[in-house]
Design goal:
The chain is mainly β. The chain has no helices and ten strands.
């Protein structure tokens, strides 16, 4: 059974940083590209970033490019999202997902950017 458990969210001031983690189990993590998606209050799911199975290729939404960094540790079955220069519009529930549409995702972690 696929399990994705996110952690690391919280309240941060604009300009601040957070690092999200996602512990994966129930599938061969190193064989899959992984994604981060987010859902802001009152909005639908938004794709944020992808990383290839080996970690060599990364992709970002224009809204986060240059501020967020996706990475993974296949030895630890863990996905990461380093978020810097956070803006109030980054406020959302962040999910790690086994696909870019977020059809298979964890329970999410809340990120709130506010002064």
């Amino acid at each position: 059974q696929v399990q994705l458990v996110e952690s690391g969210g919280g309240l941060v001031q604009p300009g601040g940083s957070l690092r999200l983690s996602c512990a994966a189990s129930g599938f061969t993590f190193r064989s899959y590209a992984m994604s981060w998606v987010r859902q802001a209050p009152g909005k639908g799911l938004e794709w944020v970033s992808d990383i290839s199975s080996g970690g060599g290729m990364t992709y970002y939404a224009d809204s986060v490019k240059g501020r967020f960094t996706i990475s993974r540790d296949n030895a630890k079955n863990t996905l990461y999202l380093q978020m810097d220069s956070l803006k109030p519009e980054d406020t959302a529930v962040y999910y790690c997902a086994k696909d870019p549409l977020g059809a298979t995702r964890g329970q999410g972690t809340q990120v709130t950017v506010s002064s």
